[in-house]
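Researcher: Last one for today. Full complex below.
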Amino acid sequence: MPNRIEPIHPEPTLPGAKVVISNAPKVRLATVWLGGCSGCHMSFLDLDEKLLDLAELADLVYSPIADIKEFPHNVDVALVEGAICNNDHLELARQVRERSKIVVSFGDCAVTGNVPSLRNALGLDDVLTNVYHEGPGKAPHGSADHVMPQLLPKVLPLHQVVQVDVFLPGCPPSPERIWAAVSSLIVGDAVILEPAMRTFG
Amino acid sequence: MAVVTLTINDELVSAQEGQTLLSVLREHGIQLPTLCHLDGLSERGGCRLCLVEIAGNNKLQPACVTPAVEGLVVRTHSDRLVKYRKMILELLFSERNHVCAVCVMNGNCELQWEAAKVGMDHVRYDYLNPSLPVDASHERFTLDHNRCILCTRCVRVCDEIEGAHVWDLMGRGANSMMIADLNRPWGESQSCTSCGKCVQVCPTGALAQRGSSVAEMEKQHDFLRWILDGREKNVWEYTDAKSN
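Model: Here's the assembly. Have a good evening.
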């Protein structure tokens, strides 16, 4: 007699991932877009058919590709793309940290500041003057007019404003890197990336 | 030359007296990260990545400028060494503007690769974000101080191999800068022969061919072996040198 205590349904398996019982509660996954070009999210979408495997195991509870207005509570894994450039980013980053078990610095902008941080060497006033005051139209001031979020004096990597659990470098991280990290995270494993999978740029 | 015996990672190893520890380690297949070292150039001991532990000495020593002497007990890999190598790379990344994603050397850069190998996946220090110039005055090459790690390979290759000594370091510490001809624009240098050796030995995107775009720059170090073999052994086999 086969042992019927074992789950009857075949369990979904992922390459390199632990077997997960199909009726287990799904992992609550969020993706966040701060000061970046969305290239990391494009690369995430390039997971292609693996997105179906992911959907078996995780619910996307917040993302720029889903119309959810507020970052929810009890998130298991949050992938955060982009650097911290302004007050809005700072506020959302803190909310993400508060409401998520694992925060992933997703891509070079979140990990290093990358291209958005190029303005740090120029000085904020000079940047605004160059882009707006010397160009056409009216310059936004930020915060005081309650229309534009106020720019921070310096663009910062995510881990300088909140505690980060996993770093996933790359501009953008390739789908292979993203899968190596995400497939481990959603089954509760530690993320271990080979050297070639953790280069900047 | 006298032969000496030393202990490396608990194994007895023979070496020639006066040989550097780094060359002994490489002969025995032990890989250490390096940035300022380049086969064929004199040693500088500047990047500190090849630091090793030597028994009886609490200070870590750079293997590239430490001679092999009788009875030396050396350890090349430990948690302490990995910790310091990581810190050194983090400090290099935080000191100037190394933005791999928009660098001519992206994908071919020695700094980028050493960081990945040692497991440096983020920088724990504040980025200094200094405002540094790019010297594009030379008709064939560019110097981007934002990417320079002050390894002085360019200084040494220009002095020791080309014999022109265009390059020098000006200033101290983090304020040090590469300068051509007592600090004039590279394009106005009267000693530069435009040979491009400095560009080829540069480990990062600091020196590049003019007009290279992101990730387009690849460096060829093998010309150095070819020149040295020709001068020292009178063997001028460029094709062999290229395929090695």
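Helices of chain B lie at 21-27, 79-95, 110-118, 153-162, 197-201, 222-233, 238-243. Chain B has seven helices and ten strands.
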